[in-house]
Amino acid sequence: MGNKLSRLNISGLNTAERLQFFINTGFYFSMQIRGKYSLHAQHEDREYRAINECFHRIFQCLRGIGDSPEPRMPDDTVLLMLNDIAKEANLQEELNWAIEEATKLLANNHI
Question: Is 52 helix (H, G, I), strand (E, B) or coil?
């Protein structure tokens, strides 16, 4: 795999292509990680699963916002799903902090 990475020229892509590349990489990477934990796992695995599932949903949302022909879930529904997943693993405080920080940047036009 290292060889494939060294042949990629990501910096040669335009901004939209680079964004789409990293969105897709995150989406597919989080999909692959799903096989690394069980659905009815112990405490540590539950947190691991929740973190990965949150990232998977975020990347899925980003893919839908982009040029993907796939149907997309409404943004408010994605946030509710993230909240449910974080709550299940007792990670709501961390998710709320991330949402607050993103909201501050949005309000200050630091996108």
Answer: helix
